[in-house]
């Protein structure tokens, strides 16, 4: 686990996947709101580092000069694109990243009580669109990630 002391040295270091392929350079760091521990980084990729991709720090190893993450380079390249110039992450963007990388996210809302036959609506409710968060989930969850800006 990478702690806050190591996190100070992550900015600008090279990032590699488990196979040793270079992914890019650490751009930004995001803390888990509940634990205050480093949880995600952005990696500057592409020509001249013009793209930034989110990468989880779960299972990452830092040796003082380089960071080796637990996901493959191709996985990072195909991750959902999140624009960072719009400020903090929106709930849907954050959820999409956790879902893409297969990381448990937030709290699961309580199971609704079964509807009795006499209380059932005449028309069935419309199903949520693919990728859309159900309203009860949105209410039960709050943003987990907070951008960390290191003062220099």
Task: Note down, in words, how this protein is organized.
It is globular, with a radius of gyration of 19 Å. The chain has helices at 4-7, 73-77, 91-101, 135-140, and strands at 14-16, 22-32, 38-45, 51-56, 61-62, 66-68, 145-148. It starts with a helix and ends with a strand. The protein has a single domain (4-108, 127-147), classed as Alpha-Beta Complex (Photosynthetic Reaction Center, Chain H, domain 2). The mean pLDDT is 78. Strands 1, 2, 3, 4, 5, 6 and 7 form a 7-stranded mixed β-sheet that branches. 21% of the residues are buried. Strand 5 and strand 6 (66-68) form a beta hairpin. It contains 4 helices and 7 strands. It is α+β, with helices and mostly antiparallel strands. 17% of the residues lie in helices and 24% in strands.
Helices and strands, in N-to-C order? Answer: HEEEEEEHHHE
- Unreliable stretches: none
Report the top-level CATH class: Alpha Beta
The named CATH superfamily: Photosynthetic Reaction Center, subunit H, domain 2
What is the domain total for the residues?
Answer: 1
Give the N-terminus to C-terminus distance in angstroms: 24 Å
